[in-house]
Fold:
Amino acid sequence: MSRSSYLKPDTVALHSGYVPESDHGSRAVPVYQTTSYVFESVSDGSSLFNVEQGGHIYSRITNPTVAVLEQRIAALEGGSGTICTASGMSALFTVFITLCSAGDHMISATQIYGSTATLLKHTIKRLGIECTFIPINDEQALRDAIQPNTKMVFCESIGNPGLEIANIPGISEIAHEAGIPLVVDATFATPSLCRPIDHGADVVVHSVTKWMGGHGVAIGGAIVDGGRFDWEQSGRFPELTEPYAPFHGIKFWEEFGPSALAMKMRAESMRDVGAAMSPHNAFLILQGIETLSLRMKQHVANAKALLDWLQQQKAVTWTNYPDMESNPSHALAETLFPDGAGSMLCFGVVGGRAGGAAFIDSLQLASNLANVGDSRTLVLHPGSTTHSRLTVDDMKAAGISEDMIRVSVGIEDISDIKADFARGFKAAERAAGES
Amino acid sequence: MYIEVRGQKTYAATGGKEFDSSLPTVMFVHGSGLDHRSWALQTRWFAYNGYSVLAPDLPGHSLSAGEPLESIEEMGAWLADFIRAAGVSRIHAVGHSQGFLDVLELARQAPELLKSITGIGTAGAIPVNPALIEAAKNSAGNAAEMLLLWGFGPDAQYGISAVPGMQPIAIGRQIMARNPLYEDLVACANYEKGSVVAKSIEVPSQLILARKDRLTPVKAGMAFAEELNARVTIIERYGHMLPIEAPRQTLQKLRELISSLEEAA
Structure:
């Protein structure tokens, strides 16, 4: 098990990264809403710039409130350090451009979030980085895709929106044999349900906008450096092992070892790209994390109860939840997600696209929007929204059908969620009858 | 940088600047199972402020080749060879925990190489719980967990870090779990010459101790400071891992002693 703290996870979620500060004794984490920090002297400023000491210079690079969140997430995931960013997408972009340069190659599971697929297929490609997409858990395809210039393997622990479970131990074993790190987007699970580093992942990415925050009021991302990958032994990462010119020729691996990647991202991407999380958003995300495990338990309980009920509804043509017994991922889900494989589920509704639209438009409690992971129940039709930029073939490869309804099950009373969905099914059946 | 010591490739951090043996040199010696990265927040200041720095990884640790040394006496002798291999005539030696025992042995075997000695989170002897040694024999990772739990003070246990966003316990675990912790702990446990060596030391000495140190309690450090006639600083609220937990305060005390000696020279 990877470990950053000897406190239990529920305690970490409330305390890690902060002890009441000495000036005022604030029990809650203060919001350091400041751009910059006064140097004690010229020499103090110089030593901060030169990494002779830790501390804060400018909030694009570090901020005390954001640092509390970073240290808390690192402790929850068992990582050596965390960099928080403005959004989950900026977290992914930061990882991609830190590990890959023009001329490099990476491998990604096909079954990923639509915007991430667009980033990999188009934006990153424009920077000279090629990505090969393979079906998740296809070990032979993974072995075949590895090239001398491959810098990372990427997948989501629970795929969005198809809910495929990544075989993190199996994927990481193949990647590591080739000296390649595994990067896992663990947004759908949160460390409350699965800690990918424990199963072999080297870097974990989150959109903390989702369940980590839970309130749906702040956008943010996080990158956790697992600290276990040997960048020197790999031989593929001169960016981390050779002198880095903009920083007096610093060699991140020699200097920082298990936190080399996090320090490189801080020194390069946060400085040069500047996708910093605002201190106020960090504060808001911290409020959410305090109740993470309580919420995740209720999310999972509601998702399972709703799934059971959906399977009895005649308007429902199919259902999908990762640890459903009929799901091929069931055994893997039980191993990697013993406390439940999240609160996302998908189903098809009678009447195809028209039935799906009627279902969503008639809901009152659940919200139709492009987000997941709120405490409130959220629904979406991926084919016409998040994944609308994909071709039909790409949608199929990503496990999406036109009649798919994606549900992020909230923590409301389950009877109210069912009543709302029952209203939707009546509308869907009417639409199906009319077509 | 890498230098050859006894025919083995040896890594020594130089604080981010090219090593220059003509400058006053400060050598930092890590503790059991650790490496040069313990000193990340002290070495760069010295390197960029008129000193040369050497923070070696002992043989068989992290970036240095070779088999781990089996006794503190051997480590002291190795440090003498290391200093000579680096082409330095005299150094300020700083040791953390077991690293200070190594420095004491260096002082016993090659006093001519020293300008001053500083021990951090240490004492003249460091008895090791047999259960910890047994754990290390079976798994460096499990022993590392015990050492990190006892070694870091309360703030670090609550995830406080001198470097924003980082988690020192996780970093320490990754380093310790890969290094020969068992050999280091046995060497520590067997070393009994501290008091004898203390009487022979003629260069200025200081101990920087931690109030919340559970591995080398302040009481043991204070008793040894008296034997050594060393100046003593006790840093409040931190634990055994002072160079990582309280890097600024540790650096400040190092600067005060070493700078004053160099200015007086």
Remarks:
- The two ends of chain A are 55 Å apart (CA to CA).
- Chain A touches chain B through 52 residues (CB under 8 Å).
